[in-house]
């Protein structure tokens, strides 16, 4: 390169740098250098492929083809060497590969996991990297995580989870060109070290005890042997489904769900007063006091709202399990707020989607959202060392506590065993 050509290149590069244009994309100052580097690397790969063994089989070079590749530096065209027997498999730019460098693919998957539409992602990539990517290519890139989704769904679980919340979200999914409502079942667990973990996601056309039975069976087959406390909504048959797979599990129905269902049958003019009386039941300091308040509730409201009072009485044993524990544990288990909080975070990502093209499209996005949410779960629940001791006293050897200590003498990941209290 002459001095004049070098000065011209430097001026062009500086102008593009100052205006924010890609130096490596189409018409970029450095595009010829990148193109030349890639083509020389491919030629070297072809030289290595056409060894003595290949040549003895009659294989040799067979001209060149052209390929347009997209990268984090922009879009450009390269000449690709070909062999007569088409057995050459380049590593730098693989056959049928149109996206160069995994970092761009990672960016696309990351943007998709934040809830951006293919249109928005395409516009972002165009603006940032001067590269046009079709919706079809974007779909192919996000499909790369499907094996990860399936592996995650089938991964082994720990043998024991102290607390598990089970609940469903509802989405619209296209099936044979028609919009269908699907239930996405989520299971959130707390392991014996106090850390949150999403145990699984499952899709069905509706939420029901029969499908929950299939979900629980799958969890069992993946290694889950025991659940100490299961927190659920008031779905009919749910408790029986849980106990059929995990017969020792203590089932706590969600107080908030029970209240919502009750208020559906209370006249609006009575709701404020009824709720004031109902709070004396579920906020009582003991089960005995709560039962006294429930009797008072029946005496005052039983004639006017017999269906509501009967529902509380029928479900009382499963609604009142939390009275066995101190306030910190009560707050954890007497509602399904933990899993509903997880759902709220997922909906921030999925709210832009009117309807998903298929079940896997829904699973892909919720999986990516879940992985981002789990990054924040770096600490055990607050005061978990005290909580686990209460659970140990209650459930005994069903909790295989970790007894090893680290160099400082403290239990790993914040656990204190009863021996050290």
TrEMBL record:
Question: Record's family?
Answer: Belongs to the transposase mutator family.
Q: Which GO terms describe its biological process?
A: DNA transposition
Under InterPro entries, the record lists: Transposase_mutator (IPR001207)
Keyword list, A-Z: DNA recombination, DNA-binding, Transposable element, Transposition
Name used for this protein in its record:
Mutator family transposase
Q: Record's NCBIfam families?
A: transpos_IS256
> What highest taxon heads this organism's lineage?
Bacteria
Tell me the segments the record calls region Disordered. Answer: 50-90
One annotated GO molecular function = transposase activity
Identify the species of origin: Arenibacter nanhaiticus
**UniProt function note:** Required for the transposition of the insertion element.
